[in-house]
Amino acid sequence: MNRFLRSPYAKTAGAFLAGVLAVAAVLALAGVLHGVPGLSRSGAAAIADAQAAELPGLGPNTIADIVSRVGPAVVRIDTTVQGERYVDPFFNDPFFRHFFGDQFRIPMQSEERRGLGSGFIVSPDGYILTNEHVIAGADRIEVTVAGRDKPYQARKVGADHDLDLAVLKIDAGNDLPTIPLGNSDSVRVGDWVVAIGNPYGLDHTVTVGVISAKGRPVTVEDRRYKNLLQTDASINPGNSGGPLLNLNGEVVGINTAINAQAQGIGFAIPSSTVKAVFDDLVQKGGVSHPWLGVYLQQVTEELASYFGLQDLSGALVASVVSGGPAEKAGLRRGDIIVRYNGSAVNNPNDLIELVGGTAVGSQVEIEFIRGGERKTVTAVIEAKRP
Questions:
Q1: 34, 40, 133, 335: the active-site residue
Q2: The pLDDT of residue 38 is above 50
Q3: Catalytic residue status for 350
Q4: Is residue 136 part of a domain?
Q5: Which residues cross the membrane (predicted)?
Q6: pLDDT tens for residues 307-325?
């Protein structure tokens, strides 16, 4: 007989193996080992069951039902930008361009650049929401609607660079499929969401994930996004402008940005932001952003010591725009703003958020510190200059 089987460890090993098999059998019977081949049902079925349990009345085909119902309202947006290609005799050297600029660049030929994005129809007569960066600078915009024979020429109705939102219009009758805007404020971290778009030109691609965070500030080039929804639903180039849907098939966000350094992290503009500015985009062609006319700086320990402050709270006015609301109200460089219309200002971001939530034309009280003394002025918030 094998020496191992006669050794003192044989009983222990046999007991351990028997215990593992017993636990596996119990787990399989209890349905815990979903997705393990040969043991129980698939992980996808488990997820569907969980969704149905949490949302009474929704069956295991919830995602498929959503896609079938609202998917036809998701459109593909192709753009064309005309330009010229140049030859630079200085090989684009920044030293020479500093002195000579572009005066020696030689135009060689016309160049056509193409772009791709997504969007979705919000009215039966052809109004479409998308990102501003999808159609920025485009000379030609084509919209492809599922089930239609050919693309439609679209015109830009309104756009806003800072919010990265745009409204397009196509003339394709009055019976187009639509997707309703939902309430992004009620979305919770962990809620299931569905993204539909055209990543890499793969039309009507569907991905599923959850809301992984809310209120994310993200900076991409010259855009400073605020209050974005973060999701792990796959979002790739070409998804921009497409809808992020809740399990009722309502839009809770517009897919906007991805994190190039991370996999599985995407961001969407909340539908509450879209609702607040949609009428202005359609009726006025743009959005009036509130503006105070100051450049701000964080209060550091050195600055606090210089100004004789007890703490680092407040927003230091680094400069004042000539003729702006702040200058008209009497604010100067070096003032430290500590309250805005009754709300505490602990840092520059606080003031930016407070001003951003103020209606253009409103009168606001601004409390600040100058020369160790607290002062108060009244300013009238104006629309941001182009």
A1: 133
A2: no
A3: no
A4: no
A5: none
A6: 777 788 899 999 999 999 9
